């Protein structure tokens, strides 16, 4: 079984279209979105419409939760808060209702979990991209699925866990052993932060126990033009060019 896993679109419709076109050329049995369809970018409603139609399961990201009123984002910095307020005004009632019913995590029949951040108290959206954060999961080792796929950091980090240790195994292709557990961040479609500005998506082969990352160029300039024409600060456009 092949499963397409993608995350953190952040209202970047041009990047999302490139990812969906890629999946159409490399078809999977299922498509799973790990959250943050909205936030930061210029086209939240278009992205929601597309992901609703395309993904078999979409889970709640922190920006999705903020826009639909499921979390308090008063502590976010001003520019991010302004975008969330703006997106809340742009979304259709149907898409707002869709965000409100998203689950925090999803346990798949193939023995893995998807969530936006850590599956421990998933409503807190805690990050797992430093080795120290992976080590903090060890007391919950017995509760974890074989693999946990997450988003949130916009990075492509991966960790292998044993009951007593965590190891960074970040690579373009990952193979999962049966006697370990894994935390894998699938990157970002619409706002990568690993200094590679191309859209990121993945395919997981459940038979081979192998995940591969794919990086796809898209029309950043058009996205930035749309962002500049909106109420969103230009800094979010600059970040797209730099991949940060």
What does this structure look like?
Helix content is 30%, strand content 21%. By secondary structure, it is α/β, with parallel strands linked by helices. It has a single domain, classed as Metallo-dependent phosphatases (Purple Acid Phosphatase, chain A, domain 2, 4-Layer Sandwich), CATH 3.60.21. Helix 7 runs antiparallel to helix 8. It is globular and about 50 Å long. The mean pLDDT is 97.
Strand share of the residues?
A: 15-25%
The largest β sheet comes out as: 6 strands, mixed
What is the overall number of helices? 8
Low-pLDDT runs: none
The total of beta strands comes to: 12
What is the CATH top level name?
Answer: Alpha Beta
* Run of helices and strands: EHEHEHHHEEHEEEEEEEHH
For this structure, the CATH topology is Purple Acid Phosphatase, chain A, domain 2
Report the CATH architecture. 4-Layer Sandwich
Give the overall shape: globular
- When the domains are counted, the total is 1
């Amino acid at each position: 079984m092949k499963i397409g896993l993608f995350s953190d679109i952040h209202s970047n419709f041009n990047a999302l279209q490139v990812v969906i076109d890629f999946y159409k050329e490399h078809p999977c049995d299922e498509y799973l979105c790990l959250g943050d369809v909205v936030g930061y970018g210029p086209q939240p409603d278009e992205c929601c419409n597309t992901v609703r139609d395309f993904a078999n399961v979409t889970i709640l990201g922190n920006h999705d939760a903020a826009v639909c009123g499921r979390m308090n984002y008063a502590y976010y910095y001003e520019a991010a808060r302004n975008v969330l307020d703006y997106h809340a005004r742009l979304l259709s009632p149907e898409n707002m209702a869709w965000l409100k019913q998203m689950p925090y995590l999803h346990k798949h029949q193939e023995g893995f979990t998807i969530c936006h951040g850590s599956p421990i108290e998933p409503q807190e959206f805690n990050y797992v991209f430093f080795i120290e954060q992976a080590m903090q999961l060890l007391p919950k080792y017995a509760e974890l699925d074989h693999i946990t796929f997450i988003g949130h950091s916009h990075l492509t980090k991966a960790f292998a866990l044993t009951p007593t240790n965590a190891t960074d195994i970040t690579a373009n292709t990952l193979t999962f052993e049966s006697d370990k557990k894994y935390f894998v961040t699938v990157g970002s479609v619409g706002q990568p932060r690993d200094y590679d500005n191309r859209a990121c998506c993945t395919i997981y082969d459940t038979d081979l126990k192998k995940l591969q990352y794919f990086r796809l160029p898209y029309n950043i300039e058009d996205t930035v033009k749309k962002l500049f024409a909106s109420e969103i600060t230009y800094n979010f456009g600059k970040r797209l060019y730099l991949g940060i």
